[in-house]
Specification:
The chain is an all-alpha fold and 356 residues long. Helices cover 71% and strands 1% of the residues. It contains 15 helices and two strands. Strands 1-2 form a two-stranded antiparallel sheet. Helix 5 packs antiparallel against helix 10. The longest helix has 27 residues. The protein is globular, with a radius of gyration of 20 Å. It starts with a helix and ends in an 11-residue tail after the last helix.
């Protein structure tokens, strides 16, 4: 094969992958998706019924916890999820602490991206990787940001509500233990579930790439885009770098991320007017969460079609942003920047051997 044909074939394969559904086990994935949807939907519904949909939205972010070790036995998740929950909460606390200062928030984004990826890779956390640590930091900073001289939400209120959401998500993960067959499943010790810390050459290079992408994404957002949106650019870059050391993985993932976000932004514009109705909003978020978890292992671009409106609806409701077209356009720009940085960092893949 000619050298010039190889990039063309790689691009064609990545383009085809946008429209291919990988095979997946529907049974287990259905339960995983249901659990994630309930982790978000129940707190949101209960607190909306109590007249505090704002708190329900904050508690619903605790559903991020449900995405980790999703296929593990319930008894195993009982051991490992407190560790993940503590990391998520620490990211949120740091985001709230640094929120008054855009430059400190940008620096914090880089620190969380590097530390979160190092933790994820060194302890073999697996999917979804470090991206939700960065998202939790970013959402926390946005929800507790300072506007017109006052916090949008007091940090203590947000962190207390988030802690309740994380606890609910954890307890929901233990529900299968009521079944005898679930209790009979073998249980690995925590040390085996989180082996390490150890970083091979491939993982070291992923951390380096994430550090480069996070630093550049934060600086570009601060100087030329919008400081408040830096978390989206950086989290996009972290997600596109991904968990794989396979060459060209980031190119295909970046293509999926950009295409999926573009379509997802259009879906957001269609759904946002409906979401103005409180109980439609309550039903819509867990439905999106269910769909994301059901399809994400089969087609990443398709998952982004639902991830994008989910995050935009949460962010818009949290800060009261009514300019939907502007929001959708901005997030596509942020995604394009983050994806481009991550895809460009893949060109440096020949260098990992020098880390040994």
């Amino acid at each position: 094969m000619h050298e010039g044909q190889k990039p063309q074939n790689e691009f064609a394969a990545a383009l085809r992958s946008l429209f291919v559904l990988a095979p997946g086990p529907p049974g287990p994935r259905r339960w995983i998706a249901t659990r994630a949807a309930l982790s978000m939907g129940i707190p949101l519904a209960v607190l909306t019924l109590a007249g505090r949909p704002d708190l329900g939205l904050m508690a619903g972010t605790g559903a991020f916890l449900a995405l980790f070790f999703a296929g593990a036995a319930a008894a195993e998740r009982a051991r490992v999820l407190p560790v993940i929950g503590a990391v998520l909460f620490a990211c949120a606390a740091l985001g709230a602490l640094l929120a008054p200062s855009p430059w400190l928030t940008a620096a914090g984004l880089v620190v969380v991206a590097i530390a979160g990826s190092a933790f994820s890779f060194a302890y073999r956390v697996g999917p979804p990787g470090p991206v939700f640590f960065v998202l939790m930091f970013g959402l926390s900073g946005m929800i507790t940001s300072v506007r017109d001289g006052a916090r949008v939400t007091e940090p203590a209120v947000f962190l207390t509500t988030l802690a309740g959401g994380l606890l609910f998500s954890y307890l929901l993960a233990l529900v299968p233990l009521v079944l005898a067959e679930e209790r009979a499943r073998p249980v690995r010790p925590l040390r085996e579930m989180l082996p390490g810390p150890w970083l091979g050459a491939g993982e070291q290079w992923l951390v380096v790439r994430i550090a480069i992408v996070a630093a550049l994404g934060a600086v570009l957002s601060m100087l030329w885009v919008d400081p408040e949106r830096a978390y989206w650019t950086v989290s996009t870059g972290v997600a596109v770098v991904g968990l794989s050391t396979v060459p060209n993985h980031s190119f295909a993932r970046g293509l999926h991320r950009t295409f999926g976000t573009l379509v997802g932004a259009g879906a957001y514009l269609l759904l946002a007017p409906l979401a103005q109705l409180p109980w439609v909003f309550v039903l819509l978020l867990p439905l999106l969460q269910f769909t994301i978890e059901f399809v994400v292992v089969r087609n990443y671009a398709l998952a982004l079609v639902f991830i994008t409106p989910l995050v935009l609806l949460i962010a818009g409701a949290a800060i009261g942003d009514a300019n939907q077209l502007s929001t959708a356009t901005e997030r596509f720009v942020d995604t394009a920047v983050g994806s481009a940085l991550a895809m460009a960092s893949g060109v440096l893949r020949e260098r990992p051997a020098k880390l040994d």
